[in-house]
Write a structure and sequence with these properties.
Number of helices: 5
Radius of gyration: 18 Å
Helix content: 40-55%
Largest sheet: 2 strands, antiparallel
Shape: elongated
Strand content: 5-15%
Order of helices and strands: HHHEEHH
Strand order of the largest sheet: 1-2
Length: 143
């Protein structure tokens, strides 16, 4: 499996004081989205399939880091795929008979859930722009 960024790359991308908690699995998921967005692009690769051009490698790495940044900012779990429920806000509590009610506002709306699902399963706009700035992702199925 091709992976275009490392945990060290993420630490350099983010503030050193607030590196994301990203496992190799999360990095691999972001790498798959980048690969899907560039599937129709032509670039040279080595025997393992990694881009050989430094500009292309950098764009792939930066797009992966940007995607993980988007997931972290939106509190999206890419492993959940299209099943993104978001955090529920407690609206009311009751001790006797132990009852808890949750707020069913914007975080629970269909629009919010759809947006979170798209964020988990599609390449972010910033990641696409990074790839396009490098001459990539011009005709790929990134959306």
């Amino acid at each position: 499996m091709l992976v275009y960024a490392t945990e060290s790359d993420l630490a350099a991308w983010f503030s050193p004081d607030q590196p994301p908690e990203a496992s190799q699995r999360v990095i691999a998921r972001a790498s798959r989205l980048v690969r899907r967005a560039t599937i129709n692009d032509l670039y040279t690769t080595d025997a393992t399939g990694m881009p050989t051009d430094a500009k292309v490698r950098q764009a792939f790495r930066d797009a992966v880091c940007s995607q993980i940044e988007t997931w972290a900012a939106a509190d999206v779990d890419p492993a959940a795929g299209a099943v993104q429920t978001g955090k529920q806000t407690v609206a009311a509590k009751k001790i006797g008979s132990a009852q808890v009610s949750y707020f069913a506002g914007a975080a629970g709306s269909v629009t919010a859930m759809t947006t979170r699902a798209n964020a988990a399963t599609r390449l972010s706009e910033d990641a696409v722009m990074i790839l396009r700035d490098a001459g990539l992702a011009s005709a790929g199925p990134f959306a």
